[in-house]
Amino acid sequence: MTDLVDFAASVARAAGDLLLRIRERGDLAGRALGDRGDAEANALILAMISERYPDDAILSEESRDDLARLDCRRLWIIDPLDGTREYREGRNDWAVHIGLAIDGAAAVGAVALPAESLIFASSSDLPRPDPKKSRNIVVSRTRPPAIATTIADALGATIIAMGSAGAKAMAVVRGDADIYLHEGGQHEWDNCAPVAVAQAAGLHCSTLTGAPLAYNQREPTTPTLLICRAELASEVLALIDRDGSPE
C-alpha cells in the first residue's frame, strides 16, 4: 500500500504545481482560469494514472463517467481542482484530490493544498491532532449546514467558513479544526481522498447519521459528510439525531 500512497502523493503534487503555474502566469482570470486549470490538471492526472496502473478504473469530476468502473475492484476517484471558485479568486483554500477506492472503501488518498505547499497522504505517520480547549467547526462558504449552529452552541465551538472539501477536511487533520460538517450532497470525488487521509489520521468519517461512506456507486454521490476527532463523534452524532437528521 505504501507504493500506492507515494504515487497518489506524487500525482497530487504534480497537478498542484501545474495549477500554480497556470494561475501565476496571469494571462487568464475568472471562469477561463478555472476551466483551464481543471482541464490541464485533469489531463495530467489521467495520463499519470493510466501509465502507472493501466488496468485500474478512473472516476473524475472532469471526465465522462464510464460505468464499466462498477466491475472494477480498484477505482481512482479524482478531483483535479476542488475549490475552483477559490482558485479563481486567488485564495489558498483549494485542493487537488487523488483517491483510490478498493472494494467500495476509501483506501488510499492524497490531498494537495498547493497554495500552502502542503501534501497530506494516507500514510501511517500522519500526526494525530491534539485536543484543544477551543473548538472549531469548518463548513462550506456557500452552503453551510443548518445543524452546524446547533452543534457549535452545544460544544462552545466557533464556525469557520472555508472553501474546498479537501481544505476543510485537512483543517481537521492538521488540528486547526475539530469538526467538518456538510449536508446537501457531494460527489465521491469531493471526499474520497480527504476521507482516506482523515481515516489514516485516526479521525471519524461517516455520513451525518453515522453510516459508513461507500464509493464506486452507480450514482457517485454522498448525501452528507462528517469528519471529526474520534472522541467527539458520539456527541456530535447524538446532537444531529436529536435535532433531526438531514438525510
Mean pLDDT: 95
H/E element sequence: HHEEHEEEEHEHEHEEH
Q: How is the main sheet built?
A: 5 strands, mixed
Q: Rounded to an integer, what's the Rg over CA atoms?
A: 17 Å
Number of helices: 7
The rounded distance between the terminal residues' Cα atoms is 34 Å
Write the CATH homologous superfamily of the largest domain.
Fructose-1,6-Bisphosphatase, subunit A, domain 1
**Unreliable spans:** none
Globally, the shape reads: globular
The side-by-side strand order for the widest beta sheet comes to 1-2-3-4-5
Secondary-structure arrangement, i.e. CATH architecture of the largest domain: 2-Layer Sandwich
Helix content: 25-40%
Binding site for Mg(2+): 61, 79, 81-82, 190
Cofactor: Mg(2+)
GO molecular function: 3'(2'),5'-bisphosphate nucleotidase activity; metal ion binding
Keywords: Magnesium, Metal-binding
Mind explaining what this structure looks like?
There is one protein chain. Helices cover 38% and strands 27% of the residues. It is an alpha/beta fold and 247 residues long. It is globular and about 50 Å long. The strands form two sheets. A five-stranded mixed β-sheet has the order 1-2-3-4-5. A hairpin with a 2-residue loop joins strand 3 and strand 4 (105-113). It has helices at 2-25, 30-52, 84-88, 147-155, 165-173, 188-200, 233-243, and strands spanning 57-60, 74-82, 95-102, 105-113, 118-121, 135-140, 157-162, 179-187, 204-206, 221-228. Helix 4 (147-155) crosses helix 7 (233-243) and helix 5 packs parallel to helix 6 (188-200). The model has no long low-confidence stretch (mean pLDDT 95). It has two domains: 2-121, Fructose-1,6-Bisphosphatase, subunit A, domain 1 (Fructose-1,6-Bisphosphatase, Chain A, domain 1); 135-243, D-Maltodextrin-Binding Protein, domain 2 (3-Layer(aba) Sandwich). The protein contains seven helices and ten strands. GO terms for molecular function: 3'(2'),5'-bisphosphate nucleotidase activity; metal ion binding.
